Amino acid sequence: MKLKNTFYGYLFFIFFPLLAIGQDISLYTQINGRYDFTFVGNTLNPQENSFQPSPSIFTSSSADLTLDSSDVIERAYLYWAGCGTGDFDIKLNGVDITAERTFSNLLFTQFNFFSAFTDITSFVQSTGNGTYTVSDLDVTSFIDLHYQNRTNFAGWAIIVVYQNNALPLNQLNIYDGLQVVSQVQNLLTVNLDALNVIDNQDARIGFLAWEGDSGLAVNETLRINGTILSNPPLNPANNAFNGTNTVTNSNELYNMDLDIYNIQNNIAIGDTSATIELTSGQDYVMINAIVTKLNSQLPDATIVLNNFNVTCDSREVPITYTVSNLNSTNDLQSNTPIAFYVDGILVGTSQTQNIIPIGGNETGSAIITIPSTTPLNFTVLAVVDDIGDGTGIVTELAENNNTNTISIELLVAPDFNNLNPVLSCNLGLTRGIFDFSAYENEVKTDVSHSATFYESHDDAINAINPIFNASNYEALTTPKEIFIRIEDNDCFAITSFTLLTENCPPIIYNAVSDNNDGLNDSFFIDGLRDIFVDFKLEIYNRWGKLVWTGDNNKPNWKGEIEEGIGSKQAPDGTYFYILYLNDPSYPEPLNGYLYLTR
Question: What are the E-state strand segments in 17-129?
Fold first, then answer.
């Protein structure tokens, strides 16, 4: 704070309490990558206000931005400030600019100061190198009042962040607010948090400050972590804020400072914060913005969803992915977590298996389970370095490139009609001949679908070994399950039906000619043996005498009469039979006659 009569150089003391109110410096944004920063700006003061013979100030000034051809502008932030309650609508190269954020400071109860901010990234990206002119920044109505204590000032600055592939990977933090150090508030402490000091090589810090004077150097110091910063001869240790610009090496940036210091020896690897201390025994200095650049040796995990596999009527989806560590300067640790989300719901987790080196990648797989309430069409969000609740465990160069999405549509099997069992006569030992060809159409609910028959479920699933003779299919044993694969363009369904045999009524041929001519040589009953396996057959002569008994394990009757342990030929004539089928479907015996000839 300058309290002096500039005409005679004598101090003019004010005997009432001194008060300054502002906004604490805090982190505005963090940028990670191959980035660095520079300052562009200029004062509106025609000379240092401590030595002005009368109040005077400009409403415009210019400065040049000069970047290398390989530098690519990433961010650009415009700050402007001055004495008074504020001018928040200005022009930059003739374009209207309105403040997006503002800061203010009050000295005593009558001396106001202001600062304003606007993100002008797109403007500077399109303009590029060249001259930048701020105009219509008018504080002329305030300078007479502020001239009384020589705090009449105005100026502007652009913080430019640029990318260059030749740069190491850095972390840039931009802090802003409006805080004061003066002869009354002669110690200002600013805590810079959110640092990640991995390597302090070429670490730098930049300050945007207002109202500093080269002619006032009373106990004026700038410290980081307890060590005084200086950059002589431009910024001596006892006069840090002295109207200089270290980018242009100018000492005529009256009442503002754009100063950058090397701090690689003032911070240590592992630091997550730094303490800035400013002292002043007389000069009134306002800190508006601080920029730190730290070399950041960190991994950078990214993920790409490669493929997935959907199965008919299944909400379990195998998915493959690749985790990469490309734009990095350190290995990515193993067991880095991966989370999968659908509509904000966690549906699966995984993790990396190995350490992924710089520039390397690893492919993995997981099975995600889709909730029943999720529609058939949905998007899967994969997030690497996420334990399942949005929390990461790995510090990375970039924390905003950990996601990837893929669209999935679940498959629903086509509908089908249920089929009844198919019946056929038992041809012996449950063998049967079947015609189920009509089921090819009956099973379908949509005529455009296809239906194919198979003997096993595995064959149906894999669509191999289809049945081609559905109209004349022989089942050697029954019951036998036949499977049908119903297909549409995307999916298939499997259903089945059963082949069953029934014991049909036997056919009795009642003539026997035991002459070995191959015709009717025995009493033949078609559909009996190996069908009615518990049958019993009795043959009687015409006088009612039982002459022969048979069952499923005994040969057919050839006209013999059983007597004791032997037998003899029966005479020609009429005989009678009683056939007990012993089958629930045929509770009554069959009986009749037969005629035997030789």
Answer: 20-21, 23-33, 35-43, 61-65, 72-83, 89-92, 95-98, 101-107, 111-119
